[in-house]
Design brief:
Two copies of one chain form a homodimer.
Chain A (H helix, E strand, L loop, with lengths): L5 H10 L7 H13 L2 H17 L1 E2 L6 E2 L13 E8 L2 H10 L4 E5 L18 H8 L7 E5 L4 H14 L5 E4 L15 H9 L2 E2 H4 L1
Parallel strand pairs in A: 3-4, 3-5, 5-6
Antiparallel strand pairs in A: 1-2, 6-7
Helix pairs in contact in A: 1-2, 4-7
Chain lengths: ~200, ~200
Amino acid sequence: MQFPSRLIEHAVEEISKLPGIGKKTALRLVLHLLKNDVSVSESLASSISSLRKNIKYCQRCHNISDGPLCAICSNPRRSHNIICVVEDLPDVLAIENTGQYHGSYHVLGGIISPIDGVGPDDLNISSLVNRVAQAEFPIEEIILALSPTMEGDTTAFYLTKKLQPYNLKISSIARGVPIGGELEYADEITLGNSILRRRNYESEH
Amino acid sequence: MQFPSRLIEHAVEEISKLPGIGKKTALRLVLHLLKNDVSVSESLASSISSLRKNIKYCQRCHNISDGPLCAICSNPRRSHNIICVVEDLPDVLAIENTGQYHGSYHVLGGIISPIDGVGPDDLNISSLVNRVAQAEFPIEEIILALSPTMEGDTTAFYLTKKLQPYNLKISSIARGVPIGGELEYADEITLGNSILRRRNYESEH
């Protein structure tokens, strides 16, 4: 497709780099921006720019945050003696949306996957162990909310081994979530239920 | 949906204002940007920002342009004695992509539509008449490439009235059954019209 303006060509190119957006959709978005006031484009551009530039990660749980501690870690009404361990940010959002969980989180930043070359040292696992070891108020329970895949099970197994010395309850979300599926796509009711019906890790194995 | 960061919330809000993009898709795009290098977000943001801020409209045909005259109007190899009148920019792009037209354009910037409160004075019609009246080389033909709707027909009727004094050929793009389509699925009005406006076989080949 040929464009009458380099500005349009450039914008279409950049927008169509986003996942799931092709050149035709990108052009539609560009024409929408051109039809609207300059402030619409400006606020879109500035929100994208400041998003990536100013985003911080919570020092305690590695969740995305606006300050040194994320909104969940700094909330005194959350139970900080329960930690829900998740793979990545979308999982936090998905669990938060169920409204069934009121503890804190720990974002691993990935999952142990030898095929992809991701080992335990690439993830926020040592910071989780430190968090348990040095907790101001003792951690009572660790909930493993990992994807029900082989990689998730491997990571869960590794974590239980690492956390065993600290004498705490380790549970896993109930297998109500469809096996083989990605956690972030599970529906809210299933996901909420799977937190309420969590089971002790030993009893399953 | 609740977000752990105002930056994310703001970006999702801004992106989901775009047509056809909901909050879930916006979040997916935001997470994509967060996973990638800061330069990806920066070049996306700057292309969006400079698009709307620096875009110009061709002084002659009102097409989108990087300078005072658009790439088509300033191209000496195009026939500037033929003007194709279109409603808006996507129509220029669509006709350019056929590779069948080598004349110039005139972008009306809309179509006469009393229901939407769009009258002839809201469109680039007087500039078209001026262009025909004051042309360096006389304009030989005006092709009306307007949508085959009531509004398109109204606009075409108004334009032919306005252009009548200048003694030039005024044509309209052919209407009929789309090439490659099944005849039985064509709507009655199109099919009926295509019988009334049938052409001699030889003249087409």
